[in-house]
Amino acid sequence: MLSAVNHAPGWLLAVAGALVGASLPQLSAVALARWSALLEGPRRPALPTAYALESLSNSVAYLVGPALVSTIAAAGRPVLGTLTAAALVVAGGSVLALQRRTAPPVAARDGGHARSRRALLRPGFVVLVGVNTTIGGFFGTMSIAVTAFAVERGSPALAAVLFATSNGAGLLSVLVYGLRRRRHEPRFQLAATAAALGLGSLPLLAWGSPTAVMTGVVAGVLLTAVAVPVVLVLASVLADAVVDRGVLTEAFAWLGSASAAGSAVAATVAGLAVDGNGARGGLLVAVVAACATAALSLAGTRSLRPPTSAEHPQPSPQYHRGAPNP
Hints:
Helices cover 73% and strands 2% of the residues. The protein is mainly α and 326 residues long. Strands 1-2-3 form a 3-stranded antiparallel beta sheet, with no helix packed on it.
């Protein structure tokens, strides 16, 4: 089997990769919707903390999972590494699906559901899709630009150090966000955090001596790493506020898909920029993506205000396991 994989044509591997991506379940969207259903009523203020916890667990999984699979593959067993990744997804998804007690109620398929789906076209949610797209573009660009930066300086291992440091900073920032008391509305928190992301990305374009450039890139990597996970958490919190309960899981799935699409497109653009202008070209693409995130968040502050009861009606009666949801 290993020999067959090693000698498989490129187009076949691309098709297989596309099929894997298309068949992956939206576990994050499902988990976020469950948190929303569990924290109804007086427990609602704890929702940002729950979403921060979800982001923290996802970040840990993204750190441990690839490291585990890469270690198995580096040991000469790439097929086993792939099967391990597939087994983890299937096992984790199955365990989550079996937790019926925490599953949110299922919306009735009637006229009310159709009205709820129109909430996905509200300006506020469109802004959130744009924010997730651009921040996904930033994330996808940085993986290429930082690697190119390290290679240009003759120290490829530097990329691993920078990524490890930025991941640690991101974990710490989302942990602090989840623990602290929030005094301002989420839309203003998003605007402030996204603005910090845009400003924090500017040191990536540092010019001058090698020391100044290195200092600027390290500072830019750390500053943006602190802001990115908080922006994503706030986008989830705001999505919960601007769309109806009956389409909340779909809304979270759209946000996740927007991030993935932005990352894929931006990675292609960053690769072309690096080929043409070196690491600086890739870092410029990252700065553009970060500033676009800030601009969208600031411009969309008004549309992200909490909707009134007339704008955000309660969904039609919902049912779960055949019984009305009280």
